[in-house]
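[Meeting: bench + compute handoff]

Bench side (C.D.) handed over the final construct sequence. Compute side (W.E.) agreed to return the predicted structure before the next meeting so the bench team could plan truncations. Sequence as handed over:
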Amino acid sequence: MKHTTTRTATALTLLLALSGCGFTQPSASPSTATASPKGVAPTVVPAPAGLTIPGGKAKWLSILPDPNATAWDDSTAVARDYTIAVHTWDTTSDLTDAYAGQRAALWGTSQLQEEQAAYDADQAKGQAYFNQEAVHRAWTSTAITSTGRDGVPSASDQDAITVNWTMTPHRRDNTRAQALSGTDDVLLYRTAAGHWQVQGSSTRQDVQ
């Protein structure tokens, strides 16, 4: 599965800085139950109040978390909601899985949003899994199974959260589909107002 977000130069700089602080793989710690609703097909709805999805093509899905309700002072909460959005898509309204990355950018910095706005999601590569599910008019729900923290941030305005997830395809023709799982490494920056925003992320998919 192609990862849909852009790794910004700032995010890579943060990753290098954190790696110098002794990155360790954290033990999985239970997170609060966080998931897009299962069994309820999404509908296209207006974007949350006051927000515009970068790129102008992706539509908001009813099963996504509302960024206006995110606990922005909690880096783990921001990383969880962002990760749910990254891995939640609907083949009946999205042309590629990159649409999910553009929706998820609403939890990101202005730089990440600008990069997503400049990116043509219709041209995304690595769409074999998405295209396979599109045949079945599938949509996905994403559950966060645990979260952790890698290393010690080098500055108080930086954080790195690992988010373990399971993404379940739901096929509208009721045929069977295989769930995927993996881990997202989410890099965040805290603004002067104390709000955490995603700078970038990378995905490590579990071997099936």
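W.E. noted at the follow-up: The beta strands are 34-35, 44-45, 60-61, 139-149, 158-170, 180-190, 196-205. C.D. will use this when planning the next construct.
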